[in-house]
Amino acid sequence: MQKIIPHIFLTLLLGLLAKSKIPLIKNILIKSFINIYKPNLEEAMYTDIDHYESYNDFFIRKLRDDARKVDYSDDVVISPVDGEIVDYGKIEDGKLIQAKKHKYSIVDLVGKDDGKFFNGGFFITIYLAPTDYHRIHCPFDGEIIKTKHLGTSLFSVNKSAQRTIPQLYIKNERSVVSLNSEDFKYALVSVGASVVGSIVPFWANKDIDSRKSLIESWNKGPETNFVVKKGTEIAHFRMGSTVILIFENYNDIDLDSLKENKRVKFGEKLVSLKNR
Predict the structure, then answer these.
(1) Following DSSP, what letter does each residue of 67-122 receive, concatenated?
(2) How far is residue 242's CA from residue 275's CA, in Å, rounded to a whole number?
(3) What is the Cα Rg of the chain in Å?
(4) pLDDT interval class at 11 (50, 70, 90)
(5) pLDDT at 204
(6) Is 103 strand, coil or helix?
(7) Which of 34, 10, 57 is nearest to 156 (CA)?
(8) Which end of the chain is more exposed for a tag (fewer CB within 10 A), N or C?
(9) Angle at 251 between CA 76 and CA 243, to 5 degrees
(10) Phi, psi at residue 275, to the nearest 5°?
(11) Do 175 and 218 contact (CB within 8 A), yes or no?
């Protein structure tokens, strides 16, 4: 069924409704979402839906300052998002694992130039459900050396799709942020999905709207040698999706805190570094 649905057309159509500022439309969408998914609005900076100009504005709502505690320990890589760890493991023979059975190429995921750095490294895949906080943050201090947009499709990335659509993450539209830290090179891959045509970077105009402009913004990137600190916002999804963290050196990472199907929150410890 997923192969015959015109995903990009559907995404664009629903996107028009999601960005509507007509009070009747946006309030129906927001109230419907709250009734279906029951998000924890007590964590939100603004709990009154009248504060939000559109459904999109509500969906990417910011958290209260005290809603998350960021672990700033020097040896800790934090979770960049709220979500569920669905896969993790070593990148062997240039391959990552999807849903415990489908293999896909690191080169196809991030591009040839970056892919060669990560063979023998490690990956962690985190799925964001619709109820999750949808802003993406820097997991570890680093310098952004490259950003890019890849892919053309917009399949769903829910658990059923992960199991049934091989190489799902390299088919879908995605953004790649490559960073150098003092200890290793790593990349943060944000994967789009059905009705998630927009992954908006922090350096883009906040009112950026067209798909073409977003792609151009990702491919241009922020200013040269831009340093980001742990916890800094990098981008946001205008709907739920998936983030894949990729590390250059597997041997440097302590994996004791990782567990499949574990729920994680932005700011908490994801993994730690052994030699710090």
Answers:
(1) S------TTEEEPSSSEEEEEEEE-BTTEEEETTTEEEEHHHHH-HHHHHHHTT-E
(2) 29
(3) 18
(4) low
(5) 85
(6) strand
(7) 10
(8) N
(9) 55
(10) -110, 40
(11) yes
